[in-house]
Write a structure and sequence with these properties.
Elements: E1 2-5, H1 10-26, E2 31-34, E3 56-57, H2 63-71, E4 75-79, E5 98-102, H3 115-121, H4 130-140, E6 144-149, H5 164-178, E7 183-188, H6 191-197, E8 204-206, H7 215-224, E9 227-229, H8 234-241, E10 250-252, E11 273-274
Helix pairs in contact: 1-8, 4-7, 7-8
GO biological process, one term: carbohydrate metabolic process
GO molecular function, one term: galactoside 2-alpha-L-fucosyltransferase activity
InterPro entries: Glyco_trans_11
Length: 275
């Protein structure tokens, strides 16, 4: 059995789930989802119930059973902090009666082998608002480009404050050299700032009808655009990875964080264009 301990926002939860799901499929074992962190963690909510996920939630075993499992050494704990943030191929070969995973696992190599199964599990099943359905029709009928700007809590942490203006200028120029008549669908947790700071020379549609409680609807819309310009955000990373357009263009920031505190060399897939 694989038990994944979820933490962070929706993008982080998707990385954690996909990694654990792929490992469970590889070893033909059950997956259980531990969402107990969200009982006390107030910054984000558990968000996977919006998807086509059939794996059950983890229920903590009775104390008597826990003692037996401990005595027989039936539990194994894998904490990403002990191995660094780079992709670790050793995880694929981890086996145990109960394997507990704790980490962010932000690399597609953990689950790319099972892409079709992950895509199926991450289909959104929660109802969409009428305006979301209407926007989806528009997205499917034009040369749509999802452009995501992450601000919010990133403004409070210098490590996230990369040179965003230069990145978006280069990314949009690149898209316009490859795509005829692109229409940019603008997503952000600060959409008023985006309206004020992006040039009106571009054709833009501002998505201003979703918030944190309906962020899965933003993922639905962004992943259905023909192309993606993502932010240094796991949330927009997933909107691009879930894009099934075989001719998609995806751009990503070359510098995910400021400084050398974290090594996220493996985070951006090789086929994505980095600026």
């Amino acid at each position: 059995m694989i038990i994944i301990k979820l933490k962070g926002g929706l993008g982080n939860q998707l990385f954690q789930y996909a990694t654990a799901k792929a490992l469970a499929l590889r070893h033909n074992t059950m997956l259980r989802i531990d969402h107990s962190n969200f009982e006390t963690y107030k910054l984000h909510d558990y968000g996977l119930y919006h998807f086509n996920i059939t794996d059950q939630l983890y229920k903590k075993e009775p104390k008597w059973l826990a003692k037996i499992e401990k005595k027989l050494k039936l539990k194994t704990f894998y904490n990403e902090d002990d191995h660094g943030f780079r992709y670790n191929n050793e995880l694929k070969h981890q086996k145990a009666y109960k394997l507990f995973l704790d980490g962010y696992f932000q690399c597609e190599d953990y689950f790319l082998e099972y892409r079709q199964e992950i895509l199926e599990a991450l289909k959104i099943t929660s109802p969409l608002k009428p305006i979301t359905k209407q926007t989806l029709e528009t997205i499917n009928s034009c040369s749509s480009v999802a452009l995501h700007v992450r601000r919010g809590d990133y403004l409070l942490h210098d490590v996230h404050n990369t040179d965003k203006a230069a990145y978006y200028d280069k990314a949009m120029s690149y898209i316009e050299s490859k795509v005829e008549n692109p229409i940019y669908f603008m997503f952000s947790d600060d959409i008023d700032w985006v309206k004020e700071n992006f040039s009106s020379k571009h054709q833009m549609v501002f998505i201003d009808f979703n918030d944190a409680s309906t962020n899965y609807e933003d993922i639905k819309l962004m992943s259905n655009c023909k192309h993606n310009i993502i932010a240094n955000s796991s949330f927009s990373w997933w909107s691009a990875w879930l894009n099934t357009n075989p001719e998609k263009i995806i751009t990503a920031p070359k510098h995910w964080f400021n400084g050398d505190m974290y090594d996220f060399t493996d985070l951006v897939p090789k086929s994505w264009i980095k600026f």
